[in-house]
Design goal:
The protein is 48% helix and 11% strand. With 121 residues, the protein is mainly alpha-helical. Strand 4 and strand 5 form a beta hairpin. It is globular and about 30 Å long. The termini are far apart. The mean pLDDT is 87.
Length: 121
Amino acid sequence: PAKKRRTKVQSEVADSSEEQFFAAFDHNKPADNARLIAAWFYREYGTEPFSVDEVREKANDVGITIPARVDMTFVQAKEKGKKLFARAGTGKFKPTVHGEANLKATYSVKKGTKKRAGATE
């Protein structure tokens, strides 16, 4: 799949509000939308694990379509043969080192430092 060239607008959007962030990327594939949501979580919380339910909730909030089996989307997400996400407990995923690099390159996000509410394992 050809990488889209990022525009100045998209670079600015990477630092913007949630609404602007999701509006800046127009993906035709539900799987790409799932990765976009993962990028949002990475931008907010770094490598803290996120759940499939949170991804569904976010997709509903921002009005984008994601695959029915979004868990399998993350399991199978690869770039150059490297896995982008690792399982982090039941129904949870977090970006791998390659996944972090991919999210940074694709969405110009920086690693977030916020802590999740009630993220005590």
